[in-house]
Fold this protein.
Amino acid sequence: MIGLTLGYGIYICNGHNSARLLSHECRHVQQYEQAGSIAAYLPGYLQQIVQYGYTNAPYEVDARAHEADA
Ligand SMILES: [Zn+2]
């Protein structure tokens, strides 16, 4: 994991900052907003990871679809 988003806090490991990663993490912020709260979002997100794996989790697929280079 090189990026982590918790609500409006986006944490990126040193040396990995890029427009692509930031746009991915911003999409997770929007997913949080759609869910209504972190508490409402996280159980569903974690369930997707367990069920589909990280790469195929629908929230991750959606975030990748919204990645953009500057
Ligand atoms: Zn992601």
Remarks:
- The pocket of zinc ion is lined by residues 24, 28, 60, 63 (CB under 6 Å).
- The chain has one domain: 3-65.
- The chain has a mean pLDDT of 95.
- The longest strand covers residues 3-6.
